Amino acid sequence: MEGSGETRHHDHRGDGREEEAPLSPWSSTTRTSSSLKTTPSPAASDDNAFAFAFSFAVWFKNSASRTLGLKPLSATQKSQIVHSPTLLPPLAHRLSHSPAMEDVCEGKDFSFPQQEESILRFWSSIHAFETQLKRTESMPEYIFYDGPPFATGLPHYGHILAGTIKDVVTRYQSMNGRHVTRRFGWDCHGLPVEFEIDTKLGIRNRDDVLAMGIANYNEECRSIVTRYVKEWEEVITRTGRWIDFKNDYKTMDIKFMESVWWVFAQLWKKDLVYRGFKVMPYSTGCNTPLSNFEAGLNYKDVSDPAIMVSFPVVGDPHNASFVAWTTTPWTLPSNLALCVNADFVYVKVREKSSGATFIVAESRLSQLPIKKSKSELDGTTVPAKDTSVPIAKSKGTTSNKSKGGVDVGSSYELVEKITGASLVGLKYIPLFDYFEKYSETAFRVVSDNYVTDDSGTGIVHCAPAFGEDDYRVCVSSGIIKVADLFVAVDADGRFTKEVSDFHGRYVKDADKDIVNAVKARFAAKGRLVNNGNIMHAYPFCWRSDTPLLYRAVPSWFVAVEKIKDQLLESNKETYWVPDYVKEKRFHNWLENARDWAVSRSRFWGTPLPVWISEDGNEKKVIGSINELEKLSGATVTDLHRHNIDHITIPSERGPEFGVLQRVDDVFDCWFESGSMPYAYIHYPFENVELFENNFPGHFVAEGLDQTRGWFYTLMVLSTALFGKPAFRNLICNGLVLAEDGKKMSKRLKNYPSPTEVIGDYGADALRLYLINSPVVRAEPLRFKKDGVYGVVKDVFLPWYNAYRFLVQNAKRLEVEGFASFVPMDSETLQKSSNVLDQWINSATESLVHFVRREMDAYRLYTVVPYLLKFIDNLTNIYVRFNRKRLKGRTGEEDCRISLSMLYHVLLTTCKAMAPFTPFFTEVLYQNLRKVSDSSEESIHYCSFPSAIGKRDERIEQSVTRMMTVIDLARNIRERHSKPLKTPLKEMIVVHPDSDFLEDITGKLREYVMEELNIKSVVPCADPLKYASLRAEPDFSILGKRLGKAMGAVAKEVKAMSQADILSFEQSGEITFSGHCLKRSDIKVLREFKRPAGATEKEMDAAGDGDVLVVLDLRADESLFDAGVAREVVNRIQKLRKKAGLEPTDIVEVYYESLEKEKKVLEKIVESQEEYIKDALGSPLLHQSWAPPEAVIFCQEEFQVSFSREELPSVSFVISIARPALVFNAGAIVALYSGDKKRAENLQAYLLSRDHSNLRLELQGGKGKVKVDCIENQPAVDVELEKHLFLSVADFYLSCKTC
């Protein structure tokens, strides 16, 4: 049978037929018109309800007098009732209640963003963060280092992600009894700030700054440093992060800068600082070198020249020339050497058409150009292979691996083969003569293994001022001395006067002219071997968006290579999530670490504390303000350049040697941020004990890009200073990308703003979305706004609905007159005999245990999936299967136990999830705590739950298997179009575990039967009774492991007998051809073995792993009535919801059949009366029981179709009405010794009372209420079920028992 889905509003019957009806106290049946469907709810107070109650009294006296033996009220009596204030119940008669939880709205009306705003105001009013810090100040310290961002831009998702991770961990640690100081920090110095000012003031180069004055320039920088601090605080606070903005630290604060000086001075004392040259990524747009980390921030695909040029070998008998390939023609004027690999074989080949002889690596011969035939374009040559590859730090060494050789036999002939070692020392003729002064040592061949056979021609042209490897090789080979290095490109990226032909030209713009010059100048000599273009990734300045150059610059260095082994040991002492970032990416970076250039030739930063004499022989490195003041005699109030550059220090050698002046450089801002663990607390000048007792810090968290940034600088400085890491635990997150996988761009507007997302769905949803994504495992996340909505839909709404269900049913106890809900203690609940109580209690303990374990291991990303499953189980198993208990259908005591269990589960879940979702858990907690005497003011003051309760793995596993059984049975029903409303006779559960079978047919049986609408559950421990077993190897797992042996093993696996398979399932392993296979290696397939004589439509099965479910699908007439009753109940529940009724709303429900054979439906309702009453909480009354003028506020007609020829469908009307009092007229008259007038006044008074308040007063008085407020009438005791009934349903049930 199935519902047709047809429903329509019903106003009147219209057929005039009268049918015999069940027992009814009313003389006639009158259905209200449809206009009554919109009648407002009964008044909330006795006073407001009086007018309604009086009109009901008039109706009641006129329509029910025949049944109850009373006459209608006279006009005088009516007037007296309406106007007599003494008929109103005094306040003293109203019941008082203990504190209770407040009512909550439906999920669809719950605004997460608005609730979060309310919580923010609440936290502010109680100074929640400050209070938490105060409460934990005597507890052990948990040191958290917060990496400082720049405040010159607004926060983005990357900041919110890292901030959320930090907030989750620090909140968790606070709830675990640790004192966690959380101070926000600001990176105030460096390129981002200077670039803003340069753009604002139109500053183009260093001279412009000097003309303006360093003091004015630096003060301009200072003025914008905190430009967006307010916006940062608003956004960060709105995301729920607790961090101290008032007591923040700034890298421009004098105390911070002084500690940076101390760090540098310590490195100097350890002989880990020196001054030298280094080829570094250089921004001509910002006139400053960048770190390798910064150089990798902004790669772009660009088209550059890709040329081959020749260098004739001096004195070669074949007039051969070396051929080098480069993508940076602008470096050719500075060429001083050619580099080969001594281990390679080189070839000397002659081009057949021109006779030119070239020398290249044998493995790179295919890269030489092949001249086109005369039938092709005149004189044009093409490279034999596409050379589109990324740029590298050493020019001309870009990867260009040939995937296959090119036949060059038609164009070139081999002259001879030569070893690379034999080429070393050969002289060649340079392209340009700008640096002829170096010719005594330069313009010769050197060797180094940085030359590879997967790039260029196997010969690299070296310009030591513009390549890191070039510089190293040229110095080590004696091409130049460090002191003689000349950089022919100025700070703006323009050629100096030494390169006379291109003087003043920006180097990248000069590329084309240099190529043309080579082509024109050496046209006859063929020095330009090949000319083409390459599309490749090239680094740009992340601030000025100008191409970066690799350029030699003087710098102060930290000798990182000296402590490389110590760095690797320090790294071993740290714990990273995910660990592969530590073991691979970071380890490799440390293993290849180079000396660190920590100085910048800029203005706004912490000045290097180095003072040098004029002759350079005397150096002083200052480690404190006090030291500087003592040595100089000056008073120091600020450490920025414009306040200390003028300070000199007298020479220790005497006045004749003059004074020491400070060097111009300032620190790279990465040195400042790496000094943060010491500088933010002004160590060692303050907080010595705090630092030394808690170093290394406990926790840091930033993005994957910081492996070469902050994580690296922290590690280098702490290892250099103390021989250990700066941190113990680290979480590394990935990058947040736009939905299309591209970088988030304000210009492209390819992502929603954080404030928009938070405004739509709330910060908690955004937090969980980020934490539950690959980005917390250092993988990229494509941000989708719909994903945040998914968190609301899949996590918060089910969670909220479970909470709302608790509140509703706790309030129902009060409405029904019982004592207010107070949760039972945990010890009492542990003793509950209910299987689902035992299960949810154990599952909650498992949740706490899991969250604790994962949080202690800093695996935040595993928590949300577990929570999601737990919430799903809570709502769809515990609440769904326990509705009767929670609604009080199994008695008050059982109801209180189940509500208390749900209360404790929700409270525990809130505490466990408070670090993740601080707002939502606070909202729930503030209501839950109203019924708890010993609760904290905020959930964030609570201790994190401890997993010390009882855990029952068997019942957890049994319930999990039960849900598998239910899912399998539902699948069978769907496959055969048997909806759940159709009752089935029998289900057989096949499983080898006797404990599970005992549970599924014992403790869990009633839940399975009710959920699946099945009348019996039969256990079967014999796996072969209803199935045949077949084994299949898992090729995806075994293929790689077994290799060639896979075929033989697969054959043996497939040949396993039934007994072999059963034995394998029991033991968990089996050996074939010497290979031991486990459960995960073999798939056991169960194929249903249908009983003899049964068809597929009569019996079917579904399996999952080791469980098989068999359903008997045959129709059983004995189940028909139950199916109809289930469908009627379903329609009533939907109508209640449509009417906007709460579960606590008490109503009368009436039905009437619209069929000719009315008795069919009436008999079904009668036979299923107990089921219907249990399901609805009250009996389903025939329409004839409804008072003639009953206030029916919702009414609808339904039609349900069945697959039965004799009864294809049933049509009926369901009416929902307000409860009506029913009086025992004789008993009431007896109260007044037969005085009917006084009896009428009493009835009128009782009808004037608010129904729920009257119910509460009666139940509070144990079924009695004293009425002494009617003027000129004696006080009487009115008893429930003796003098009156609170509803027609109560009266009906009383009649049934008589």
Automatic annotation (TrEMBL):
Keywords: Aminoacyl-tRNA synthetase, ATP-binding, Ligase, Nucleotide-binding, Protein biosynthesis. It is an enzyme of class 6 (ligase). Residues 1-43 are annotated as: Disordered. This is isoleucine--tRNA ligase. InterPro entries: aa-tRNA-synth_I_CS, aa-tRNA-synth_Ia, Anticodon_Ile_ABEc, Ile-tRNA-ligase, Ile-tRNA-ligase_type2, M/V/L/I-tRNA-synth_anticd-bd, Rossmann-like_a/b/a_fold, tRNAsynth_Ia_anticodon-bd. PROSITE patterns: AA_TRNA_LIGASE_I. HAMAP family: Ile_tRNA_synth_type2 (MF_02003). Residues 1-20 have a biased composition (Basic and acidic residues). Residues 837-987 form the Methionyl/Valyl/Leucyl/Isoleucyl-tRNA synthetase anticodon-binding domain. GO terms for molecular function: aminoacyl-tRNA deacylase activity; ATP binding; isoleucine-tRNA ligase activity; tRNA binding. GO terms for biological process: isoleucyl-tRNA aminoacylation; post-embryonic development; reproductive structure development. Residues 119-779 form the Aminoacyl-tRNA synthetase class Ia domain. Residues 22-43 have a biased composition (Low complexity). It comes from Canna indica (Indian-shot). It catalyses: tRNA(Ile) + L-isoleucine + ATP = L-isoleucyl-tRNA(Ile) + AMP + diphosphate. Its EC number is 6.1.1.5. Belongs to the class-I aminoacyl-tRNA synthetase family.
